[in-house]
Amino acid sequence: VHAEEVTSGRLQGENERLQREWLEAKAATSREEERSAKAAAEASRKLAAAAEEREVVEGQLSAARDEAAALRTQVETLHTLHEAQKLQLSEAGAGGDAPGGASAAGGVGSPP
Predict the structure, then answer these.
(1) Is residue 96 within 8 Å of residue 107, measured between CB atoms?
(2) Dihedral (Cα; 101, 107, 111, 112), 10-degree rounding
(3) For the whole prediction, is pTM greater than 0.85?
């Protein structure tokens, strides 16, 4: 009877120890799951913020490209106007200062 009581006592103690370990493991698992859920939520929040920032930057990039294209068009237009003015000035210089292509100092169409 004494051996049975000792064995029963040991089994009871082992059972209580295993129950404590199980409860500790369950609590640790719950804490890890909670930590994991918080980390996932934080990662999701950061991902959403990064996606929003990317959209803003892409919008700024698109606007900058549009502005650069407009400036290139302006430069091309100004270059064309400049070339046209240079051509007009060279034609005016080659033909003289007076109307009709004659110079005031004498030339074609001026009185003798």
Answers:
(1) yes
(2) 180
(3) no
| Token code pair at residue 4 | 């049975």
Q: Which residue has the tokens 């890890």?
A: 32
Half-sphere CA count of 97, side-chain side, radius 13 A: 4
Distance of CA 23 to the CA centre of its chain: 49
Burial class (CB in 10 A: 0-12, 13-18, 19+), 101: middle
pLDDT in tens, 18-38: 999 999 999 999 999 999 999
Contact 93, 101 (CB under 8 A): no
Q: Which two tokens stand for residue 46?
A: 């950061």
Spatial contact of 95 and 101, defined as CB atoms under 8 Å apart = yes
